[in-house]
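Course exercise 7: structure representation. Students receive a sequence record and must write out the corresponding structure in token form. The form below is the worked example handed out in class, using JmjC domain-containing protein (326 residues). Read each field label carefully; the graders check that inputs and outputs are placed in the correct fields and that the protein name is recorded exactly as given.

STUDENT ID: A-19
EXERCISE PROTEIN: JmjC domain-containing protein
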Amino acid sequence: MTEDTFRDLWKRGYPFVIRGADKLEEKIWRPNYFIEHYGDKDCTVIDVKENVEYKMDVKTFFKGFEDISSRFVNKAGICPCLKLKDWPPADDFAETFPEHYKDFYNSLPFKEYTTRSGVLNLAHRLPLEINRPDLGPKMYNAYGSEDNVGGKGTTNLHLDMTDAVNMMAYAPSVENRLEEERDKTAAAVWDLYHPADLPRVRRFLRKIAKEHGLSINHPIHDQCFYLDKELRSRLASEEGVTGWRVFQNPGDVVFVPAGCAHQVCNYTSCVKAAVDFVSPEGVARSYVVNQQFRKLRHGHKRKTDILQLPNILYHAWITSWDESND
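STUDENT ANSWER:
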């Protein structure tokens, strides 16, 4: 894909996938590597079906990544479907995983946008003395889940204030579990919805919440829904919204514009790395989402502007002014 094509898609808020981008060095993204080098580190994982958190070490999580018989068993005698997200949660990825950081950035497309020093990444315009927002990269590691009727997926429907790029680094071989609307060899599937379709998506989800007696503040920002096969069908028939279905395998890079609602289901255990950025083409959508977050109820987890968007816009304008007057 050329940069002109990228810019055209990005201006229009269209997500896309680049197949088989520059391959990562697979051996450092394998479960055994994390067990060997980080196995004794503590982590917090989430049961994607029950939304329950568990504390364990990294070794316990990754031992069950490919071997179901080695998975953690909870007090109810169940092996939950676990997700280790935003890893590391607080520390700088570059310091915690220096090999992975270098490998990931070397493989990213459109580095002018997607890297920390990219000239078209407006977040880069913040001066060093300001406490910059943590835009990643982060790792997203999770066991396989389901997206058929009753399936809970891996990540619920949500949208972000930033643009994002997500690369799958590793997945074991995928079983051919037959399903009509899936790629039989895909490791994961994304459902993405354009910002222009979101009023109809919100209206549909409020109806679903009412049907189930759920009290919600915002049907997307609360991140309380995964649209399984039945709900996706209803959304299409009742609101005329189909969105995009994007299948992802190791080496595939998914680009998600700011304000584009999306959900993810891993069909098998996957290791992914992602980073956020703020593009000139997407900053208006970032502002719209920023205003939506500000209107959420007090205490809502998405109300705080951790992106510091006004600071980014101000310093982007200042630096652009300086450059134009050099």
